[in-house]
């Protein structure tokens, strides 16, 4: 069963070894997303971000980071990545559902934003199928989508 767990001393090294593509391993900036290592560093510098490892039962399959973005003045799902070994199996949508529910219960937020590169069509299709809408705004060349929950 898919579930979110805190990134901790027992799993952090495995989390940073995850990659969105076999050719993206050990890169600080992957093609469409910052590495998990960079995300953990960013989260360690601000109390606004929550990091979670995504598991299917006991198998680590992904990573997420969410919280309040001072820059955007909104609650943001900042990172959602599924390791390339597990992509195309429906994990993204299941994880997205759990993350949105967690953000609602943790923050009581009614709107969640997500930003992504325009040419990341897989992410765009996933977010639109979940109900995220294009705000018509961008930040650092990324599209900003919003979900009213």
Automatic annotation (TrEMBL):
The keyword Transferase applies. Residues 2-149 form the N-acetyltransferase domain. Coiled coil: none annotated. It comes from the Bacteria. Keywords: Transferase. InterPro entries: Acyl_CoA_acyltransferase, GNAT_dom, MshD_Acetyltransferase. One of its GO terms (molecular function) is acyltransferase activity, transferring groups other than amino-acyl groups. This is Diamine N-acetyltransferase.
